[in-house]
């Protein structure tokens, strides 16, 4: 589950970038949403003094597209995937959750996030689908509502965010009111 949690967080960030109309780079990095900074901030005290070291490793992993195999790449330096696993867990889908996620639209995007490998191409597909869906919104409030609906679809697909309120509040200080950050927080609020 450890690297899966990191893949899920990467997929959520890719969707936020896509809703904002941006693409994931060919190496898998997500513009303006640096997981290396976000994850330690969201973990707060859970990461302890290791947050800086693991954040640096995460930055390298995200910029080089190694998110799909983080566990084996980090070796003795620690397992960033385990840290992500302390935030996100994937359990059983709620009644109708898996079936709803198999459909198109928000359900299809949720399904893509839940099944993503963390590779650059997988994250790029998520961002592209989110961009397509985001273009159907006529206002910022509609877009934020869609992002929250995505979070709810992820939750019904079995995804949970531990310490959601605290993690989202930590992102407030890190991301401020930047548009992609606001979209990301809306998705996470939908999960919580």
Between the first and last Cα atoms, what is the distance in angstroms? Answer: 19 Å
Looking at the structure, what is the overall shape? Answer: globular
Q: How large is the share of residues in beta strands?
A: under 5%
- Supply the number of structural domains: 1
Q: What is the count of DSSP helices, taking H or I runs of 4+ residues? A: 11
Low-confidence stretches: 46-60, 62-78, 95-103
SSE string:
HHHHHEHHHHEHH
Mean pLDDT: 76
Cα Rg: 15 Å
Helix content: 55-70%
Largest sheet: 2 strands, antiparallel
* Major β-sheet strand ordering: 1-2
Protein architecture, described:
By secondary structure, the chain is mainly α. A two-stranded antiparallel ribbon has the order 1-2. The longest helix has 18 residues.
Topology:
Layout: H1 2-19, H2 35-43, H3 51-63, H4 70-74, H5 80-85, E1 88-90, H6 97-101, H7 105-114, H8 120-134, H9 140-156, E2 159-161, H10 164-175, H11 179-191
Antiparallel strand pairs: 1-2
Helix pairs in contact: 1-7, 1-8, 1-11, 2-3, 2-10, 7-8, 7-9, 9-11, 10-11
State the gist of this model.
The protein is mostly helical and 192 residues long. It is built from eleven helices and two strands; from the N terminus they run H-H-H-H-H-E-H-H-H-H-E-H-H.
